[in-house]
Amino acid sequence: MNVELSPPPPNEHGLLRFRTGVYVTLGGLAVAVFATAIASLSPFTEGFVIGALIPYVIVGIVVVTQISAYHPHGRFGVANALTLTRLVITALLGGLAYEVTLQGLKPVPWVAWSFCAMAVGAIIVDGLDGYSARRQNLASDFGGRFDMEVDALQIMLLCVVALALGKAGAWILIGGALRYAYEIAAAFWSALKRPLPPSFRRKLISVIKGGTLAALLAPVIAPPFSTIIAGVALALLIYSFAVDVIWLAIDDARARRASS
User: Fold this and answer.
1) The whole model's pTM is what?
2) pLDDT of residue 6
3) Which of 58, 45, 116, 65 is nearest to 87 (CA)?
4) Rounded CA gap, 139 and 131, in Å?
């Protein structure tokens, strides 16, 4: 659900961007350090570091330049810091996606288990950021969108890695593309721009989808079992999107009738 709030006073914009830049820079250093360590201790190439830094830098620039317009607070906040932590993990997944797709390298067992643990950790952290924002009274449109975009990027990268590792067929990419397809469709169908009410079903299926993709990184999860659980998770995700789209279409039709 969208949170309608006003931006901070103009004189606080620069300070908020500066503080955000500090957080983003520290996160970038963490990505560089962890990516370099993983590359040096595994068969991965220097491309792992580049593959991790590119998505982080792109998202980081958007975060710093856009936060003051949609975050009506003077502080970056714990919730956004938690989301930034998930972005660090997601960036490392970008490096993994680069190696397994473009270089054709397979992660050694300890690397695979490490990424599995990181992905699970990101899911746990995802359950804390919204609570932190509400507890600190720092909820904003920016925080909600930041959270959703990191979720979408993480799901897409996990789908790419799962495909490259042979855990499922190319159809698994549908799960990673659904969020972006929804955004594109919203540009042509205004009903999809309407706010959605909070939904336990949506949150639960999101956790199931993320948890399943994280599990696919584990070396012990292999076909046909990996294909089955990935297919079930995708079916649930498609169902969740379909329910939301139908609800929005009905809600939009009701609003149009009420205004006519």
Assistant:
1) 0.91
2) 47
3) 58
4) 9
- The token pair at 36 is 């370099």
CA distances to 36, 53, 241, 252 from 255, rounded to whole Å, are 53, 44, 21, 5
Q: What type of residue is 13?
A: H
The encoded tokens of residue 260 equal 């006519």
8 Å CB contact between 63 and 86: no
Distance (Å, rounded) from C-alpha 99 to C-alpha 157? 12
Give the type of residue at 36.
Answer: T
CA 144 – CA 131 distance, rounded (Å): 12
List pLDDT tens digits, range 49-102. Answer: 999 999 999 999 999 999 988 888 888 999 999 999 999 999 999 999 999 999
CA distance 114 to 120: 10
pLDDT of residue 62: 95
Whole-number Å distance between alpha carbons of 111 and 216? 13
Residue 112: count other Cβ atoms within 10 Å of its Cβ: 20
